């Protein structure tokens, strides 16, 4: 269980969803506990479909083995930017799935998975060696090319100095045709690389990180590339004896092939090749080992009437459920992501005996939605305020959002709620942008009989907020509610201002106020708002919670609750259900799940 | 579906014992227990709970063939009745994430010290012939706790004593939920990882938790929710006084400094058997 990894990884492990680690290689614990983060922030939020993420200092890849309710994870130092860990994770998954088919996967993993993994490790090392060689060849070829190009440039410059323009044209036709070809391929390959980067922006970091991936020992080898080899590559200069040239040519051809493959087909072609190889092997190996066990297992399954879910079975049911979600105003993007993630987690699972597949799928989706909606931390604001009060601190909440969604009204409702429970509240008017905003807030403050802190307009809202916090501390207020100007997420100036307000004053809570009736565009807005805030905030802070207004207008179209919590991962702290100050409620997760799936 | 079922019943009635046992796992546990009690008053054996969903577990108790048949009929009734399941009563392992629940669970059930990661699903096992459920502590799985609490007979509640300051809030929330529901299972509160540096004493943890529960008690029912489902009223009555475990907790709570990794299991087993 504690054996070292030969590959440059931190950890490879297989664990049960119930929390038991069945098999592990590498470090016993990782710094920053990325596994807990993985479970909490990805797997339980139905973001498992992404299959890889950078968490803290580690790059994690994960795959589910639904047949046995297991998860396979590989963790590597993120700084190494390895691009083959996903493949390794896939391969491990395949082997574990083969074991799962034969039953008794727990025991099998513990007793006999070590040699299987050793085999995989060897395979991958071989792959990496091949690749390193290719990279080396590639590098040498490039070196040769650049040397040649430099020489040519020098020649051209010298000639250009003495010759006229026509003569320069003549020189170009005189040029060695092979060199010209090489030059052309060089430019082609570089432009190809750029195009790929643009096409797949999501992969760009991975792909970009690929070229400079330099193996510790690989780099040394690269440095050791001898001058002789470089010379052998540079065919334009080599006019030695025939036999040597033949040998050199053969080798060169080989290397050129590698170069071209690497340049044009890049990873895709090579990896597919390797993938096929792996699959073949896993089949060959799995067949004799588990044939007996699998058949007996199948027989038993048939007798007992149990069967596993297939993709074909799941898809139509899931499509219907997705439609229902859309009808309830869940954003398309979110409905797609959640249903896909749940579908992925179901393929291969056993249908509960005497259960119906469609019921099982619906239940799984409902459970997933419930998990996403269930807050990852307490939504009890009053408790937080009381805690702060006990410690003699002033609690601060900033309300942000786009224009006209009901920020000031929501803020007033929260002020009323807190005041009702003997909290000394103060309101700060930081909307120094829209005329009339301060007056509007003043009338609320009068109505609530709560102190209003304002510095008029034409002030930096961050300064106003800071001054108000200082004042609140002196006046021993328990809680400060800060109103900000409504702003569109694409208004850079105002977003910067807001980010400054947040990062300078570090409020205890940043609440995003949004309408419960928003559909797809509302989710985009929230997403962009959050991103833009994170981008401009020095500490990358984002919103901590959501306030949904106008909930009384949506009937059972409660989809926005799911969309917003899924996209942000943050809980819904308050729900506005009317005009009056008392019209403030908590979200009932059960009610939403019922509305979505009844 | 139908041919499969017919085949199944035939198989059961043809009295192949292996099939009957497979069957028995198929049938719903409580139903099966009831059937067996009706059909043949066997010496207490069918009363012993079995871990559901674990086929690989070798069936240890012999089941009369008649029961197999009865189970098949029961299964048929279950299928026609829509297959609603009522869960068996069980002892629960509860507590915030990373308190050491899964480690203790496997020590109790398999007598092995296992490596663990954060759990995503509940696990069930047998300790001294009693069913024990390891319930994940992650906040997002809170509804799981609510569901499992309905069948709780006893609760082993775990807190990381070395991380008590951070876990106090989550732990208090859980305890408050336990206190606010109908059944009154007794609690053993393990202040786990007592051997770690900075581990708080049970007395200290008790105070912190009491103070957190006091706050929760004040704030819990201050705002209605959007659902119509009215939750049960808070049963804690502190009569205006500061909450304390001794005088206000609705069920017996015992605090114990513990190390799930190193300590003997006797204390926990005793509690579970009591």
TrEMBL record, chain A:
Domain (SRP54-type proteins GTP-binding): residue spans on this chain: 571-584
Topological category with respect to the lipid bilayer: Peripheral membrane protein
Protein name: SRP54-type proteins GTP-binding domain-containing protein
Gene3D superfamilies: 3.30.450.60, P-loop containing nucleotide triphosphate hydrolases (3.40.50.300), Signal recognition particle SRP54, nucleotide-binding domain (1.20.120.140)
UniProt key word Transmembrane helix: no
Source superkingdom: Eukaryota
Main location as per UniProt: endoplasmic reticulum
Molecular function GO terms recorded: GTP binding; GTPase activity; signal recognition particle binding
GO CC terms, sorted: signal recognition particle receptor complex
Automatic annotation (TrEMBL), chain B:
Signal sequence residues: 1-20
InterPro entries attached to this UniProt entry: P-loop_NTPase (IPR027417), Small_GTPase_ARF (IPR024156), Small_GTPase_ARF/SAR (IPR006689), SRP_receptor_beta_su (IPR019009)
This protein's record includes keyword Thylakoid: no
Membrane association type: Single-pass membrane protein
Statement: the UniProt record of this protein carries the keyword Transmembrane: yes
Disordered: annotated segments: 21-63
Record-listed GTP binding positions: 95-102, 137, 192-195
GO cellular component, one term: endoplasmic reticulum membrane
Stretches with biased composition (Low complexity): 21-42
Subcellular localization(s) per the UniProt record: Endoplasmic reticulum membrane
List of residues binding Mg(2+): 102
Keywords recorded for this protein, A-Z: Endoplasmic reticulum, GTP-binding, Magnesium, Membrane, Metal-binding, Nucleotide-binding, Receptor, Signal, Transmembrane, Transmembrane helix
Entry GO MF terms: GTP binding; GTPase activity; metal ion binding
Family to which the UniProt record says this protein belongs: Belongs to the SRP receptor beta subunit family.
Protein name listed in UniProt: Signal recognition particle receptor subunit beta
Organism classification: Eukaryota, Sar, Stramenopiles, Ochrophyta, Pelagophyceae
